[in-house]
## 1
Amino acid sequence: MGKTGLKLIDENGIRIDGRKPDQLRPISMDVGVLKNAQGSALVSYGKTTVLAAVYGPREALPRHMTLPDRAILRVRYHMAPFSTTERKSPAPTRREVELSKVIRESLEASVFTELYPRTTIDIFIEVLQADGGTRTTSLTAASMALADAGIPMKDLIAGVAVGKVNGKLVLDINEAEDSGGEADMPVAMMPNLGKIVLLQLNGTLTRDEFKEAMKMSIKAIKEIYLIQKQTLRDKYAKMTEEEKEE
Amino acid sequence: MGKTGLKLIDENGIRIDGRKPDQLRPISMDVGVLKNAQGSALVSYGKTTVLAAVYGPREALPRHMTLPDRAILRVRYHMAPFSTTERKSPAPTRREVELSKVIRESLEASVFTELYPRTTIDIFIEVLQADGGTRTTSLTAASMALADAGIPMKDLIAGVAVGKVNGKLVLDINEAEDSGGEADMPVAMMPNLGKIVLLQLNGTLTRDEFKEAMKMSIKAIKEIYLIQKQTLRDKYAKMTEEEKEE
Amino acid sequence: MGKTGLKLIDENGIRIDGRKPDQLRPISMDVGVLKNAQGSALVSYGKTTVLAAVYGPREALPRHMTLPDRAILRVRYHMAPFSTTERKSPAPTRREVELSKVIRESLEASVFTELYPRTTIDIFIEVLQADGGTRTTSLTAASMALADAGIPMKDLIAGVAVGKVNGKLVLDINEAEDSGGEADMPVAMMPNLGKIVLLQLNGTLTRDEFKEAMKMSIKAIKEIYLIQKQTLRDKYAKMTEEEKEE
Amino acid sequence: MSVTPSTYPLVPKIQKDTILSLLEVGKRADGRGLEDIRKVKIIPNYIEKSDGSALVNIGDTVVLVGVKVEPGTPYPDLPDEGILMVNAEFVPLASPLFEPGPPDENAYELARIIDRSFRETKSIDLKELAVQPGQKVLVVWNDIYVLNHSGNLIDASAIATLVALARTKIPNYEMNEEGYLVKKEGYKGTLKLTKKVITATVAKIGKYYVADPTEEEEYVSDARLSVSFTEDGTIAGMQKMGAGSLEEGDIDAMVDLAWKVSQKYFSEISTAIGLPPQE
Amino acid sequence: MSVTPSTYPLVPKIQKDTILSLLEVGKRADGRGLEDIRKVKIIPNYIEKSDGSALVNIGDTVVLVGVKVEPGTPYPDLPDEGILMVNAEFVPLASPLFEPGPPDENAYELARIIDRSFRETKSIDLKELAVQPGQKVLVVWNDIYVLNHSGNLIDASAIATLVALARTKIPNYEMNEEGYLVKKEGYKGTLKLTKKVITATVAKIGKYYVADPTEEEEYVSDARLSVSFTEDGTIAGMQKMGAGSLEEGDIDAMVDLAWKVSQKYFSEISTAIGLPPQE
Amino acid sequence: MSVTPSTYPLVPKIQKDTILSLLEVGKRADGRGLEDIRKVKIIPNYIEKSDGSALVNIGDTVVLVGVKVEPGTPYPDLPDEGILMVNAEFVPLASPLFEPGPPDENAYELARIIDRSFRETKSIDLKELAVQPGQKVLVVWNDIYVLNHSGNLIDASAIATLVALARTKIPNYEMNEEGYLVKKEGYKGTLKLTKKVITATVAKIGKYYVADPTEEEEYVSDARLSVSFTEDGTIAGMQKMGAGSLEEGDIDAMVDLAWKVSQKYFSEISTAIGLPPQE
C-alpha cells in the first residue's frame, strides 16, 4: 500500500483507473490551435491537459541580455488556478520555477539555437488541468509547438512519468498514484537519438527498480513519439490540402 | 432604501448632508500649491480632497520606452493611508490601478501630447481625504495642475459622479450615498467641447435613468468648469500683479 | 534595572557575561577567508559574527547609473535566517535597509572612490550570528574586507556600541543588554584621523552620559583598530612568506 | 501607475484609411457588417477538475474560465455572505504583447468590469454560501484565462463567466471539530444564479459604431464602450475605454448597439447550455 | 541594498563656494542666520476623517501626518500593550527625485528615526490601548506623507507627528460575540501623551553648523546630525546622516544647536495647539 | 520563467580542450583523479545561537547550514506532523555571479533537491514534532547559506544539512493559556533522524564522468546527475541538470559513481560527528 494506506492496485494488477501497470492513458494531441503564436500544441495524457505556445525567434530582450552565438530560450511552466485540486494562486511557486528550469534545459538540448544568434525564443506552457505527469506532458507539448513554429530541432522530445505504487512500478502515473505512491520518476528524451534530456526522481527506488523504470519509460516514450509524428504529419497534410483548395 | 437599508433621502427629498438631489457639495480649488512641481492643484468636493501635481514634459524614461511622435503620460491615482474610513495600505490596490488607467485615458484625450515627442509628462494624484467621487475630483484637479504647468490642452476636464440612492438620482454623491446606494456613475468631460472622456457605471440603472443621469452630470460639470476657469483666472491675475510689484 | 526589570549588572559592577562595564568582548578577526571575493573578512565580537566580502571595482551597473567622477558603492547589510534568536525571514527588513544605508554612508567617508570613476564597488555583509553590536562589527569587517581587496582608503574604520543598562554605561553591549537596557549607541570612526563616520542613538541619555559614552567608544575603537592593523600585518607577512616559499 | 502604452503596434495611416473607407460602405475587414458579431463557440464544463468552467471562442479570441468553490472567511461587514472573486490572467501565450508576470492594468480592469456586473446585480445568491455565518463561508473563485487575444476580450470573458457560473456545482463542505471546513464526497447542488448578466462592447471608429471589435479595430478606434445588461435590458455597468472622447449622442447610439449585441450573446448562451429564459 | 545615489542634482562647485562665502559672514542663501529656522506653519486636524492629523510647513517643505487608530493583535512578547506604527511615504508629487513605488531607504530611515524617538521615551501610553490584553489591542497608525520636499523632512515630520498624536482621539471599539473589535459611535477619549519629544537637525557645511537646512544645503553639507529631545533636554535619539564625517567637537556643537532649535519647535507647537507645558 | 543564462563566463574552447586532454589521461586540472573528491572539512555546531548547524568546505566551496526549530501550524492534510522547511540562499558574497535579491531558480532547485531527499525517505520523525496535533506543531527551518561557490553546491549542502539536522536540539516549547507555544529554558532532546540520506553529483564531460565537479567543470560539462542515497544504497532522489543530454548507459555509470562518492561522504560525516552506523 502507498503512503496514504490506499490500495492503488487490485489483486489482478489493475490500477484505480482500470489500466494495467505498463499502460499509458489515452493520449490526444493537436497542433496549431492558437492564432497568435508562431506555433502551438494542445496535449492530453488522460485528464492532464497542457497548452504550449511558441513566440520567436524574436528580438525580445535588450541586446546585452542576448547571446552573440545563439538564441536565448525563455520557458515558463505555469499552472492555471483552476487546474489543480485546490485552487492555485497564479503567482509562480517554487515548484513552477524549478520545473521551468528543468524543462528549459531539456528543450535546449534539442533546439538548434545557434541558428538564431541574438534572438529570443519564448515557450509558454499552461497546464490547464493537472492529473499527474504535468512536466512530461508539458515537454511533449512544447516540443510539438516548436515543430509547429518551424524551429529546427535535432529531434522531437517526448516524456512520460513512471511511478511506484503499492510496491509496483506503473507507467504514466495519475495524481492519485503520485500522491499515494512511493516514487514519481519523470523521464523525457529525444527518442530517435536515444538521448535522455530530463530525468528526475522524487521518492525511493532500489537500483533494480530504477533500471526497470528506465526501460518502461523509454518504451512508452517511443509510443508517444509515434503519436507526435502522426499528428504533425496529419497537420502538414491538411495544410497542404487547404493550400491546394485555395 | 439603499443596499444597506439606510434611509438616505427624507420625505422632503433632502439628503443626509442636507443637500437637494441635484445640488453639488461646496467646491474649493487652488492651484500652484506645491513648490517643486511644474503645476499643482488642490481640489475639494465637500470632504473629498485631492492634491494633484505635474512634472514634465521631462526625459524620465529610457529612450526605447518613449514615443517618437508624442509624449508619454504617466498617471498615478493614489490614496493616502489616512484618507479612507479604515486605514488603507499604501501599496496600490487593483482599484487604484484601474482608476489610474481610466484617468490616464481621460487626460490623454485632452493633452496635446504631440507637442512633446520623446518626453514624459507625470501626473501624480494623491487623495488626501475620500468621501465619494474621488476619481472625478481627481480629474478636475489633474486637469488644473496641467493648466498650472502650462501644458497645452484642447480643453480643461471637469468631472462629477451621479448616484442613485433610495431609487432617486442624486448629484455628486458622498461616501455614505455611494456605499448605501444602488448606482455610482462617474462622468468627466471637456465641457467646452462637449466631449465625454470618462464614463463608468457601477450599479444598475434603467435606460431612462441613465439618460437623466447623463443630463444631470453634464449640467453640473459645466458649473464646475466655471469655478475652474475663475480659479485659474484669479491665479493668473495674482501672478501678474506680483510681477508688477517686483 | 532595565526595561524588562532584569538585573544586568551585579553589586560589584559585573555584567551578566562577567565583563566589567568598560570591557570589550573577546574579538577575533581574519581576512582573505573567501576564495571568490576580491577581499573578505570574518570578525567576531563575542558571539556576534560577521562575514564581509568585497567585489570590485567592477562594471556592474548600466552606464547611466554610474557616476562620471567616482565609483558607486553598493552595500548590503543582511542577517542570516539562523543568526537571530527567532528565525528571520531572508527578505530584507526595514531595519536592514536602514543599516545598509548608514553603513554605506560610513564607508563612503573612507574610500577614495574618485580613483575608480564609472565603476561599482560591492560590499556584501552577512551577519552569521547576532548578539548585539552587529552594525559596528559589520563596519569593522567591511573596512578590513576593503583593505584585503586592496582598495585605497583614508583610514580603516572600526566601530563599537556603548549601551546604558541599569543606569550605567557599558561598553560593547550584547543582545541581552541591548534589549534589556535603556540605550544603545553605535559609534564608528576612522581612528587615526579622529573622524566619526557613524553615530546613532537608540534610547535616552543625558548630555553628560552622552559625552561619557562618546569617550568610552572612542577609547575602545582605538583598541579595536590595533587588532585590525595587526591582523592585516600578519596576513601580509604570511602572504609574503608563502610567496618566498614558492 | 498607468503609462501610455509604447509597445502597441502602430497601425499605419493607410491601413486606418482602408478600414474607414470600408466602414463607409457598411463593411469590415473580415467581411462582417458593422453590427455583426463573429462566430461564437461555447464549450461548457471544459475543465473536468474545476467546479464549473467554459471555453469560449469569439472568432479567434479564446477565453477559458474555471471556477473553484473553496472555504474562506467572510468580510467583516458582510458576515453572512459568501464571496465572489473574479480574477483575470492575460497569460503570455495569448499574444505577442503579453509578458509573463502579475496582471497589468488591462487584466485588472477586465476582471473588475466583470466582477461589478455580477456583484451589483446580485446575480449570485451569496447568502447560500455562508456555511457558518460570521465564521466560514464559501468563496467562488472565477478565474478568467485569456488564451488567444484577437480583440474583444471583455465580451468573451463575460460569456465564459456567465456559462461557467451557471454550470458551477457546490462541493460538499462540512465543518470538522477543529473548526475547519473539510471537503466531502459529491456536491451539495448547483450555484444559484438569480439573474443573468452579460457585457457587450462597441467601438467607435471615425463616425461609425462597430460591434465585437477585432484587435486591429480596437487599435484604430477612438474609444470603446462596454455595457453590461441583465436580460430585461437594465444597464448593469458601463466602462468607457481608450484615450479618445465620445459625445452624448455617441453614447446613446453605442448603448443601443450594445443592447442588440447582448441579446445575441444571451441567445448563443441559451443555445449552448439550454438556460431557461429568465422569468 | 544601499547604493550611492546617482540621480541627485550635482551642486556646482561655484554654488558651493557662494554658500560658503555667505556662511563666512553669517548669512545663508535665503537670508537667514546660521541658527535661524524657516517659518513654521502648523494646521492641526487637517484631515477630518482621520483620528488625528497635522499639516506642517517649514518654509516650502510640506508634511502631512494622518493618524488612524485600529484594532490589531499584540506582539507576543508585549501582550498587554497597544502598538505604535510609524510609516513614511515620499510620494512622487513632492519632488522630481521621488519615484512611485514602495518606500526607499530615506523613507524607512526617516520613519524609524521618528518611531524610535517616541518608542524609547515611552511618549505614548501603550498599555491604555490594550482592549483585551493578550488578544486584541489598538494600533496607532501614524502615516507621514511628504507633500513637498524643500529640505529638513525629518524635523517637519517630527513636528507633524507630535501635533497629530497630541490631537488623536481614540475611537470607541467594543468586542463582539465573535471576538472581533467593532467600532461604535463616538470616541473613548484622547491618546495619552506622557512625554513630548521632538527631533532637530543640524547640517555641517565646511566648518559651519546650520539649523533647519534647505534641500540645497543638504546636498552641499558634509554630514547632518538629527537629535531627538524630550522637553527636559534629555537626548532621546540621534542619527548621523550623509557620506562625510564629523569630529568629536563637531558633535558637541551640533547637539547644542539642535537643542536650541528643539526649543523653538516646542514653542511653535505650543502656540499652535495650546499644549500645556510638561510638568 | 526560466531564461538561458547570459552572464555565465564563457569557457574558451582551448580551455575545454585542455580539460578533455587531461581527462584522457585520467587527470583533472586540480590534480585529482576522475573519481576523487576534494578535501572535505566539516565543523558541526558552527552557529551557537541556532538549534543545529554545520559549516562544510568541499575544496573552496563553503556552505553553512543553520537550523531553527520554531512553532507553527500543521498542514491541514497532515495535522499530526511537524514540518521540515528547506530554504537556500545564494548570497552575493559567494560569487561574482550572484546578485542580491530573492532566490533564483538555481537556489530553489537546490533547496528542493535536498528537501525531497529528506522528505521522501522520512529521514526525520515529523510526528514527534506535533506538540498539539491539529493545532500547533514545530517547524524545522533548515537554511542553506552558500558562502563561496567553487562548484558542487548540492553535495556540500547535502552534507551540511545532514550534519546540522543530526546535531539539532529541540527547544522546550509549552502551550500557554492563550494557545501560543512559548519557549522555555533548555531543550527537550535531539531531533530524531531515522535515516541518513546524502546526495552525490557526477558530471559528464565529453565521454568522461567526474565526481565532485568544480565550477569550471560544471560550465564545460554536458550534463550533471545528482543522486540521493540512503546508507543501504536505496536511491532516494535524482536530478539531471544542464542543457545537454545523457544516454541510458551514461546514467548507469553515473549512478554507480555517485554511490561510490556517497560512501565517501558518509564516511567523512561519521568521522566528523561520530554518527553511529545505521542499523
## 2
Amino acid sequence: MKKLINNPEHVVEEMLEGMVAAFPGYVRKLEGFNVIVRADAPVKGKVGLVSGGGSGHEPSHAGFVGRGMLDAGVAGAVFTSPTPDQIFEAVKAVDGGAGVLLIIKNYTGDVMNFEMAGEMAEMEGIKVAKVVVNDDVAVENSTYTTGRRGIAGTVFVHKIAGAKAQAGGTLDEVKAVAEKVIANVRSMGMALTPCVVPAAGKPTFTLGEDEMEIGMGIHGEPGTMRTKIMKADEIVEHLMSKILTDIPFKPGDEVAVMINGLGATPIMEQFIMYNKVSKILKEHDIKVHRTYIGEFMTSLEMAGASITLLKLDEELKKLLDAPADTPAFRQF
Amino acid sequence: MKKLINNPEHVVEEMLEGMVAAFPGYVRKLEGFNVIVRADAPVKGKVGLVSGGGSGHEPSHAGFVGRGMLDAGVAGAVFTSPTPDQIFEAVKAVDGGAGVLLIIKNYTGDVMNFEMAGEMAEMEGIKVAKVVVNDDVAVENSTYTTGRRGIAGTVFVHKIAGAKAQAGGTLDEVKAVAEKVIANVRSMGMALTPCVVPAAGKPTFTLGEDEMEIGMGIHGEPGTMRTKIMKADEIVEHLMSKILTDIPFKPGDEVAVMINGLGATPIMEQFIMYNKVSKILKEHDIKVHRTYIGEFMTSLEMAGASITLLKLDEELKKLLDAPADTPAFRQF
Amino acid sequence: MATDAAGLVKILEKVAEKISENREFLTELDSAIGDADHGINMSKGFSAVVEKLHSQKIDDCGAILKTVGMTLVSTVGGASGPLYGTAFMKAGQAVAGKSSLDFQDFVTILEQALEGIKYRGKAQRGEKTIVDSLEPAVDILKDEKDSGDKGLVMEKALNAAKEGVEYTRSIIAKKGRASYLGERSIGHQDPGATSCYLMLQAAIEKIKEMSVNGL
Amino acid sequence: MATDAAGLVKILEKVAEKISENREFLTELDSAIGDADHGINMSKGFSAVVEKLHSQKIDDCGAILKTVGMTLVSTVGGASGPLYGTAFMKAGQAVAGKSSLDFQDFVTILEQALEGIKYRGKAQRGEKTIVDSLEPAVDILKDEKDSGDKGLVMEKALNAAKEGVEYTRSIIAKKGRASYLGERSIGHQDPGATSCYLMLQAAIEKIKEMSVNGL
Ligand SMILES: Nc1ncnc2c1ncn2[C@@H]1O[C@H](COP(=O)(O)OP(=O)(O)O)[C@@H](O)[C@H]1O
Ligand SMILES: Nc1ncnc2c1ncn2[C@@H]1O[C@H](COP(=O)(O)OP(=O)(O)O)[C@@H](O)[C@H]1O
Ligand SMILES: [Mg+2]
Ligand SMILES: [Mg+2]
Ligand SMILES: [Mg+2]
Ligand SMILES: [Mg+2]
C-alpha cells in the first residue's frame, strides 16, 4: 500500500483538519464531529444543504461546501456512510430557519443513516427534506430493489440546488429543483485499476495487467463487464451509448457534461475522453451548455473515469450558471 | 501501460482538442500548432504572457490560459520542450502591442527553444522578455551548471505576473514582478510511483513496493534520496526543512502554500500533507496568506506530491489575491 | 429463573467477542458481494459498545439495550449501523424499566429487533439480508415460546438462523450493496445474515453457559 | 574533387539512417541520466529531414543544410533540437550559395556547427555534452586540413570524437538534464556526445563510400 498517510485509522480526521487549515475563509469543522460547514453557517433565512457519505470520494463532499453549493459535508469512514449523529449535528449547525435539504447518494447505508438523522432533526423541530441521487446507469433499475447508485451526478445536484437555495428558494422549491436534476442526470464509469482502502490495506478488487472494468461503482463495486483495455474512444462510445439511451437524450437537447477522474487518471486522459464525448454529442445534435473536467467524485487512487450528462432546461441552465465559490468548485 | 488513450502519438493533439471543445469560452487553439491561446487573444494594450513546456504536466500550462493568468500555453510532446516555431506562433498570436513575456521552466531544452523563439519574435519587431523559473530546491544550485529545475512554483509566476499584466503593467513591470516571485518561491517534491510516457510505454524509473523517492523531478529525473516509505508527516518534515532553510523563510514571514499532486495522489492525501505543513508553519511563526491544494504541475500518473512556498510582500499579496478565471485556476 | 442486568452485559460481551473473532471472516464475505467492511464496521461498533457498557453501570435492562443500539448507530455507519442500531433500540424500548429478563423477554427482544430491522431496511425475507437469518429464528421462538425445554427451543431457533444463512447463498440480493450485482450475487453467503447468526449463537451459548434456568 | 547537392543529400540520408538505427540505443543512454527521449527526439527529427529533402530539390548546399537545421529545430524539441538545429543552420550560412562542397567546406561546416552548438548551449568541453565529441574532431580537422591524406584525417577526427564519447563517462554533467544528477552522472556515456559521434561516423562512411576524391 503506497499512500501518503500517517495512520489508516486517522485519515479522515487529518484530512478534514487539513482542509479547514487550508480554507479557513470557506469552511470550519464542527468540534468533535467529522462535519465541515460553511464558515458563516448557519446562513439566516437560507435553506441549508447537507450532503455527505463515506470518505475517499474527495473533493466530495466537504470540498463543495461554500457559497452557492453545500452548507455542510458529513464525512464517514472511508467508503462507509456517516452515522446519524454526525449528520444530525450538521443539520443543526446549518439550519438557518428555512429548513434543511439532505442530498443523499443512493446506497442503503447512506439512505438509512440520513433518514435516521432526519428523524432526529424533526424531533427537534427542524424542517427536513431529502432527495436521493441515483444517476449510475450501470445498475439495472427496478423499484423492487435498491435501485441505482448515486455517483458523480450528485455534484450537479449540489450545484443546482445550492444555487436555488442561495437565491432564496424555499425548502420545497430547493427540493423540487434537486429532484428535477436527479430526473435528468445520468452517469457511468469505468476503472483501469482498483483502489486500496487504507484500513484494509489491500485492493478492493483485482484486475489483470491488460484488463479494465466497465460500470464499476465508486467503492469498487463490481461492474457490468470486464474486458481487455480498449481505446479511449471505444470506451467513451460504450459509456455514452448507455447514458444517451437511458433518459433518452434527444437531438436538440442541451446538456451539461462532466468528465470525472476517479483519482489516478491524469488530466490529459480526461481531456482525451472529452474530445470523443464532444464529437459524439455533435453527431447526436446535442448541444453542450457547460463542461466540467476534473476530479469531483473520486474513489481514492482508482484509475478510471466517469461521464455524466445532465439534460438542461432554462431553469436548470440559469442555476447551473450561477456563481459558486467553494474550495473545490469555483465558477464566476 | 494502463492509459485512457487512443494512440500514444496523438495524445497531445487529442488532449488540446478536448480542452478547446470543453472550454470554448476561455480558449482556442492555433490552427496547425499545439498552442492554446485566450479566446479573445490578442488583448490590445496588455502584455502577453506565454508559457509552456513538454506535455504531461496538465493542467500546466494550457489550463492556466485565461483572464488574469496566461495568454498562451505551448504544448510540446510529452516531457519534451516545444519547438521554437510553436512558441513563436504563440508570441505572435498574443502580442497586443505591449510586448510578450516568456515564462520558462529551467530546463536546457525549454530555455533554448524559448530563446530561439524570442529571437524569431524580435526579428519580427515584437518586444519580448523572458524569465526562467528555478524553484526546485532538490537540485544543488550553482552558477556554473544548469541550475535548479522549474516545477510547481511556476504556477505562482503565472498567477502573479498574469495579475500584473491584467492590471495594465508594462513589459518591464510584469517581468520585474515575475522575477520577484522567482526569487521568493521554493518547491520540493517526492514520488511513490513513477509514470509511463505514452510513447515509451514503460516507467521512467522503478521503485520497490515499499520504496519512495525524494526530490525527483517532474519528468522522472532521479531525486536526492531513495528510502522506505515514510509516514506523511515525516515526508512533509523533510521537504519543509529543505524548503524553509533555503531562502531562508523567517518568523513573521507571510507565505502562499501550494500542495501539488503529481497525478495519482488522491486529494485526501494532499490534505493530510497540508495538515502537517500548516502545523510546521505555525511552529515557525510563518503566516499563511493563501493555500492552493490540488493538481497544478503534474507528472502524468505519478503518485506523489510537491510542496511550494512563496514568500509574500504587499505587492505580491495584492497580485496573488486578484481574480483569475481560467479552465484550471479560478479565484474570485 | 432470569438474568439480571449484569448477566445481560455478560451476554453482550460475549456477542462482542464473537463479532471481533469473526472480523476478518465477515469482511471477507463482504468483499465478495459488498465493499469489504462489514467485519470492520461491526467490530468497531461492538468495541465501542463494550467500552460504553463498562464506563457506566446501568440496572435497567431496557436502558442497556437502548445504549447498545445508540452506540451501534453512532459508531458503525454503513447499512448495518442503522439496522442493528434500530434493532437494539427497539428491543430496549420493549423491555424498558426491567431489572431482569426471562425467556419471554428474550423472545420479545428478538421479535422487536426483527421489527426494527424491517422498519429501517424495508427488506422482506428472500432478499439476502439480515432478515433471512433473523426471521426464521424469531418464528420458531414465537411458535414455541411456551414449550418446556427452552434450551431445545433456542437450539432450534439457532438452527433455523443457520439454515437462513445457508439459504442466502442461493438467492439474488435485492437490498443493500450486493443488489448491484444482480445474478452474480448468487453463490455467496450474505455477510449481514451471517453476523446476525453469529450474534445469536454467542448470546445463546452464553445464556446456556450461565445456566440461567429461567431462560 | 567535390560533392554536389545530390551527394550532400545522400550523406544526410545516411546520417538519418544511422540515427534511426540507434533510436533505442540513444534512448537507453538518455534513460540512465536524462529523460529517455534522445533517440526518439532525434529520429523523429531526421525522419522529418529526409521527408523534407525529398519533397523539394535544392541545388544550393548551404540552403540544404539550413533546411536541415530548420527542420530539426521545428521537429525535435528538447535540448538537442535547438542545438543540432542551430549547428546545421550555422553551417548552412557558411556555405551559402555553393552548389558543391570540397574538403575545406567539410571542415568549415563542422567548425561552424560546433560554434553554433556552443553559442546556443553555452557549454565548454568537459561538461558532458555534444561538445565533448564534436570539438576534438573539429580540432583535428582544423589542424590537419592541409594534410595530403584526407581519408586519414577524417579517420583521426572520428577517432577523436569516439574518445570524446568515452571521456564523457568519466566526468560530471554540468549542462543539460543530466546535470541534476551531480556526481551520479559519472560512469554514464552522454547521449548527445554519442549521437554526434554517430552522425560524424555516418557522414564519413558515406563520403568514403562515394569515393569523392576531393573530400
Ligand atoms: N435493507 C436491508 N435490510 C436488512 N439488511 C440489510 C439491508 N441492506 C443491507 N443489509 C445487510 O447489511 C449487510 C452489509 O452491511 P455492511 O457491509 O456493514 O454495510 P454496507 O453495505 O453499507 O457496507 C448486508 O450483508 C445485508 O445483510
Ligand atoms: N548546453 C548544452 N550544450 C550542448 N549539449 C547539450 C547541452 N545540454 C544538453 N546537451 C546535450 O543534449 C543531450 C540530451 O538531448 P535530449 O535528450 O534530446 O534533450 P532533453 O534533455 O531536453 O530531453 C545531452 O546528452 C547532451 O549531450
Ligand atoms: Mg460499507
Ligand atoms: Mg526531453
Ligand atoms: Mg459493507
Ligand atoms: Mg532527453
